[in-house]
Design goal:
five-stranded antiparallel beta sheet, binds 2-acetamido-2-deoxy-beta-D-glucopyranose, alpha/beta, about 375 residues
Length: about 375
């Protein structure tokens, strides 16, 4: 190799190396990974932009970065003793091959290190048949990811997003017992619980009280350590256009099938808590309370005159569930997602936002 090329390549390599390793925070200490455990986990998904500046950082313990990487968020989280973790999403068919799996994990570890991050949240929500190749590959992925992260980033956290119920919901037949043993925690997504409606095709709660808590009992009955379970709650609801709206207030849905079920919440549209709070007081019904599902809802008429029913969660319905986190000794709570509140400065929004954060504490 000519000397000039060698010098050029060496200089290039050094430049790239340094660039990747330079700590973007005010002080170098803020780039150090967080490794201590809090008694009560509050895991927040963040989908980008700057809403995180308004988060209640006395409560947050982990932020899963589902938006673009934001070094300012990393520095801030670390200054509050909170973790920032990567999003891990890969097609399972691509990691059945052990070599490909190892390569994917190495890429993730490398990315986390270069960005001074504290772990990874595995968000793999694909259909998997019981005891299939993919079933075993997924468990191996979780185990090997955890081993690699713990080895390369001591004290890092590897979490896995679990369906609201372990019972093959949405065709996700995963080996939850082995997966829970193989990672630090399961973030149980206690929402979208109407993704498969087998009975009457009508609007129902996103996260009904009894159904939600029964599913935790099922996870615990499988001998999964309660300290591995984080209860994920929704800061969004569903807006359902009603094909028929009965005198009793039952909203009949269009039949939109999902993974084998004839009817699903896909007949509705997900909307943020901030949007619903601007709508509810001026709606047809105002806030109503579903005494069976223990969750709020309201009805409104759109410009064409069609009735919609909006099913959601608020501090009252969330608190009813999160007290169970304390009672059952679970690891903590979490939200999909942190961006969905109204972080404006007016007193009503501020109070609503405070109440939503408070409801996560299960007190
Ligand atoms: C393994 O990875 C290679 C390179 O990314 C890809 O081309 C190949 O399809 C993968 N194999 C499987 C079985 O997915
Ligand atoms: C609670 O949910 C479980 C499982 O979905 C069901 O079997 C049970 O009847 C429900 N209990 C009440 C009081 O609704
Ligand atoms: C809606 O009504 C509730 C209950 O009366 C009140 O607490 C809340 O501040 C109102 N929301 C707005 C945006 O005015």
């Amino acid at each position: 190799m000519p000397m000039w090329l060698f010098v050029f390549l060496t200089a290039f390599k050094v430049t790239v190396f340094c660039k990747a390793e330079v700590c973007p925070c005010d002080t170098k200490e803020l780039c150090q990974q967080i490794s201590d455990e809090k008694d009560f986990e509050v895991l927040v998904f963040d989908v980008g932009q700057k809403a995180w500046k308004s988060y209640d950082w006395d409560k947050v313990t982990t932020v899963a970065a589902f938006g673009p990487y934001d070094s300012e968020l990393m520095c801030h989280a670390h200054s509050k003793g909170a973790r920032l973790v990567l999003k891990g999403d890969v097609s399972i068919s691509e990691i059945v091959d052990p070599g490909n799996r190892t390569a994917w994990i190495a890429d993730m570890v490398d990315l986390a290190k270069r960005q001074f991050m504290d772990g990874i949240n595995l968000d793999i929500e694909q259909e998997v048949a019981d005891s299939s190749q993919e079933y075993y590959a997924l468990t191996a992925l979780v185990r090997e990811t955890t081993e690699a992260f713990h080895r390369e980033i001591p004290g890092s956290q590897v979490s896995f997003d679990a369906a609201w119920s372990p019972g093959c919901i949405d065709g996700r037949c995963y080996d939850y017992v082995a997966i829970a043993e193989s990672c630090d925690l399961l973030f149980v997504m206690s929402y979208d619980e109407q993704s498969q409606i087998w009975g009457d095709c009508v609007a129902m709660a996103n996260a009904p009280f009894n159904q939600t808590l029964t599913a935790y009992d099922q996870y615990l009955a499988m001998k999964i350590d309660p300290k591995k379970l984080v209860m994920g709650v929704p800061w969004y609801g569903y807006d359902y256009p009603c094909l028929d709206f009965s005198q009793e207030g039952v909203c009949t849905l269009a039949k939109v099938p999902f993974r084998g079920a004839p009817c699903s919440d896909a007949a509705g549209r997900q909307i943020p808590y901030s949007v619903m709070m601007k709508q509810v007081n001026n709606s047809m019904s105002g806030r109503l309370w579903d005494k069976v599902q223990l969750a709020p809802y309201y009805n409104y008429k759109d410009q064409s005159g069609q009735v919609h029913q909006v099913r959601y969660d608020d501090p009252e319905s969330i608190s009813l569930k999160t007290v169970h986190v304390r009672d059952s000794g679970l690891r903590g709570t979490g939200i999909w997602n942190g961006n969905l509140l109204d972080y404006n400065d007016n007193p009503v929004a501020k109070q609503q936002t405070r109440d939503m954060w408070e409801a996560l504490m299960g007190l």
